Each structure stands twice: as structure tokens, then as C-alpha cells.
Amino acid sequence: MSDPTDVVVVGGGVAGRSLARAMAVRGRPATLLEAAEPASPGCAATAGASALPLAVLNPWRGRKGAAHPDDLLGLATMWRWAEALRAEGRAPGAHRSGVLRLPTDRRQARAWRARAEAEAGPLAWLSPEAVPAPFHAPLGAIRVADGGWIDPAAWLAALSASARAHGATLRSGVRVARLARERPTDPWTLHDAAGARIAMAHRVVLCVGADDAPEVHDAGRAWTPPALERLRGDIVTLRGGPALPLPLAGGVYGGSAGAVTYAGGGHRPPESTDPEAPARLRAALARHVPGMDRAHAVDAWSGVRARTSDLRPWVEELRGGLWWFGAFGGRGFLCAALEASRWADARADPAAP
Predict the structure, then answer these.
(1) Looking at residues 33-44, what average pLDDT do you find?
(2) Mean pLDDT to the nearest integer, 47-54
(3) What is d(CA 162, CA 214) in angstroms, rounded to the nearest whole number?
(4) How buried is 193 (Cβ within 10 angstroms: 0-12 exposed, 13-18 middle, 19+ buried)?
(5) Nearest 10 degrees: CA dihedral of 150, 154, 157, 161?
(6) From CA 333, how far away is CA 254, in angstroms rounded?
(7) Phi, psi angles (nearest 5°) of residue 20
(8) Which residues of 287-316 are buried (b: 16+ CB within 10 A; e: fewer)?
(9) Which of the four pLDDT bands, split at 50, 70 and 90, describes residue 43?
(10) Does residue 165 register a pLDDT over 60?
(11) Is the pLDDT of residue 169 over 70?
């Protein structure tokens, strides 16, 4: 039997790949196991919420337009990673364009204007006349100067390439169904659905997002992680409408990449279907962007995201050497780099547990 690996990361979405890269650049490369088959030579695929076609990066969220300190720090960390990836010769697909938010009523407009005046620099208040075309903003708008958008496929590919270059091992088409150990001092053994051993590791980090977690058998006792709230969201791909000069955040969000515009929003039970989602999202975006009602939908994406009750990421040691890392609630591209850096920094010392 081969020697156990130090760290195995289960799940190749934005959480898992961020963690794999963060460990590798600190000289402690991990093994990443991704259930999806490779999308192309040298690049693992992914599914779930990390596979969305466009992600808007906006830490100023909710009706109050407030920003959690960790979301601001997460955005700054993500931009630093983007520059580091570019320095390695990679194309991270990150666009620091700014983000627009449109108030829904006069009371909100007044509150957002006051916030923008208090947070001058990160935020700017735009009068209706200053809002760029083609947006319809009779109450004005708030611009998040440091926000932007990301091409998730490009970002994930860049993370994978960087992690590999720093020594990480990435294996796709590997679904972990069971984790087990006989004694608390033993390494974890990872098995597939047929019971075959996949790997052994001193530490396992579950980055499975909204997917079902593997079975866990620790010293003869079965254990299941607590249930997370799971929500399904939709994104429609539109052609033929006006291009957005900067992405829009809010109840309906969107952004343009070349001749294609993406519109997303809403949430519903994870098992539900909504055949009207493309028409609904196009109509919602058209309220803010006149002319978008003439666009036609060419594709639609639907995915499930997981979140905790307090909407903060869940990073916790569940058992000795077994960690949960995820539940970003739709903010994985905003926060994963920060949380991965924190986790890896805490274990950069080879003697750290």
C-alpha cells in the first residue's frame, strides 16, 4: 500500500481549485479529485454552481448595499490572484470593469447616495444623467469601482494550470463515495462507489458544494455533515440586444462578453424546473436595459448553490483531519481565494495540524 498523501481535496469547483492552488504556491501541494470528466486535455471540467457562464464580482450586496469586510477582502484577494496568474502567463478571465447597481425606489436611492458619499472611492453615486447608456436609471445608480466580472471557465482553467505548475496533482473523473478510518490516528482512506480504494490522506478537505457529501465512517461510526440550504438559480444567454458596458448587480444581474449578454437571478427549490426562466430573466433585465426585450435566448444554465444560515462560508474541521470547505452561497468567485489563502496560511508550517 502506498504512503498516504498529506492533503486530498475532494471537489474541483472554485473552492477546491482555489484551495489546491493556495496550498501548492506555499510549497505543500495537495491532490485534487474532481468527479467530472476532463473538458479538454489538461483541464478538468466542473459542474454545479462553479460552472455558471459568468460571475459578477460585487461585495456591496442586499437592499442596503452594505459590504461585509470579508467580501471586500475577498475581492481584493481575487484581484491579487488575477495579477499573479497573469504574471505566470495565464489568462484568468477576470475583468476589473466596475459594477453598476440600480435602486428600486426613492428611499433606497437616498440611502445608497448617502452610503456612496460616505464611502467615496470604493463607491460613486451617479445621477440619472451620468448613468451610461443603455441602462435605464431614472433614480440614479451606484457604481462599485473595484467590482467586475469573471469568466468562470477561464478562471478555473488558470487555477488548475497554476496549481499543477506548483506541484499539485489534479485527477478528474474520480468520484469519492466513502471515507473511512479504523482509528482516529489512522489516515483517511477514500473509496469509490464500487468500494475500490482511490487514495489515502492524513487530511481530507471536502469542497463538494451543493453535491452530496461522501459517506464518512470514523472508527466504526457513520457520520453525515449537517444539511445545508440549497437553492437553484438560472442564467440565460442572450444575443441581439444592447451590450452592457459594465455588469449589473442586484435582484437581476448581468454582463456582456463580446456579442453575448448573460442575465441571471432568482432562486427556487433545488429539485424544481422553470421552463419560463429564460423569458422571465430577459424581461427582468429589459426593465433596466431598454432594447433587451428584442434579444433572443440562445442558451440557458441552471445550477444549485449551497449556503449556511448566516450566509458566511463554512470552513470547519468536522473530524480530526477531515474538513469542510465551501457553502459560499453564490459568492465562491468572490470569496474562495481569500478563504483558501487563510486555510493554507494556517498550515504553511509543515508541523501545523
Answers:
(1) 66
(2) 86
(3) 27
(4) exposed
(5) -90
(6) 15
(7) -60, -45
(8) ebbeebeebebeeebbbbbbbeeeebbbbe
(9) very low
(10) yes
(11) yes
How many CB atoms are closer than 10 A to CB 283? 14
Spatial separation of the C-alpha atoms in residues 240 and 283, rounded to whole Å: 14
Separation of alpha carbons 311 and 330, rounded Å:
10
pLDDT at 353 over 50: no
Nearest C-alpha neighbor of 2 from the set 213, 169, 160: 169
User: How long is the chain?
Assistant: 353
CA distances from 74 to 84, 142, 191 (A): 15, 20, 34
Instruction: Report d(CA 47, CA 59) in Å as an integer.
Output: 24
Among 336, 332, 325, 256, residue whose Cα is nearest residue 81: 336
C-alpha cell at 325: 470547505
Judge whether 284 and 75 are in contact, CB under 8 Å. no
What's the rounded Cα separation, in Å, for the pair 275 and 265? 14
Looking at the DSSP bridge assignments, the partners of residue 125 are 142
Question: Which residue in the block uniquely carries the three cell numbers 490522506?
Answer: 201
Rg over alpha carbons for the chain, rounded to the nearest Å, is 21
pTM beyond cutoff 0.85: yes
Type of residue at 204: V
- Per residue in 70-126, pLDDT (tens digit) is 999 999 999 999 999 999 999 999 999 999 999 999 999 999 999 999 998 999 999
pLDDT digits (tens, 9 = 90+) for 175-223: 999 999 999 999 999 999 999 999 999 999 999 988 888 999 998 888 8
Nearest to 82 by CA among 96, 68, 98, 72: 96
Strands 178-181 and 169-172: unpaired
